[in-house]
Specification:
Blueprint lengths: L7 H9 L2 H5 L25 E5 L12 E6 L5 H5 L7 H18 L11 E11 L9 E14 L2 E12 L2 E13 L1 H5 L16 H6 L20
Antiparallel strand pairs: 1-2, 2-4, 3-6, 4-5, 5-6
């Protein structure tokens, strides 16, 4: 565990409290009235502290690496909910993406517009080198913003991301996020040739298919994990 530059209370202020208590006075405008894109709160928050920041605050430009840490409880609800001993991939993905959202806020992205902006993940590529299991301990996330483009009231940001356990990279890749106004989101046309990509299963394959019913057993929700 390394010394926190931004501790859990600061991260919770960004996800559930007053953004100015997480980052400073420039975000006071979002403490009430205006809306800022936030990190997920517990039990879907997978950041405990930020320990390194190689980037100037409030400057929207490519950055150096930032590092955050996440202490994985051996009895975390998502291990039980996954119905197997390994960590669900959705949790691993969130653990890599959430520091990107934190860095976007640290750089002052939301202040670039006079209207409230939504934050959307637009895609990416990554490799999972190792699964994670109960007892994996502290996971370090490293992310950096590699490119920023602003146009038409939108902001597109590219990131490198890594997850490390005991200094070893277990997950790494690249991802892209965007900030969009409600007006911009309403004008999105989606995938233009979606109809051509529709999967059509031949009747012969449907007749040969087999089905299974998955038992609906606890835990399904996070607060059910410790219910006997």
């Amino acid at each position: 565990m390394h010394e926190a530059l931004y501790d859990k209370a600061s991260i919770l202020a960004y996800s559930n409290g007053k953004p100015s208590e997480a980052f400073g006075d420039p975000y006071r405008v979002f403490d009430s009235g205006r809306v800022i894109a936030r990190l997920p709160g517990p039990p879907f928050q997978f950041m405990d502290r930020v320990t390194k920041v190689d980037a100037p605050a409030w400057e929207l430009a490519p950055t150096g690496w930032i590092e955050s840490e996440w202490d994985v409880p051996a009895d975390a609800w998502y291990f039980a909910a996954n119905r197997q001993v390994s960590m669900p991939f959705a949790v691993i993905l969130e653990a890599a993406l959430q520091p990107c959202g934190w860095l976007a806020a640290y750089c002052g992205s939301a202040l670039r517009s006079a209207v409230d902006m939504s934050f959307r993940n637009l895609g990416g590529k990554a490799i999972l080198h190792e699964e994670l299991f109960p007892g994996c301990g502290t996971i370090t996330a490293r992310v950096r913003m590699t490119k920023v483009n602003e146009a038409g009231g939108m902001i597109i940001q590219d990131y490198d991301m890594q997850l490390l356990r005991q200094g070893r990279v277990v997950y790494e890749g690249v991802t892209t996020f965007g900030f969009f106004s409600k007006k911009a989101l309403a004008q999105q046309v989606g995938i233009r040739d979606a109809g051509k990509r529709k999967l059509v299963v031949p009747d012969s394959e449907m007749r040969a298919a087999r089905g299974w019913e998955i038992a609906r057993e606890r835990p399904i929700e996070p607060d059910e994990a410790n219910v006997n």
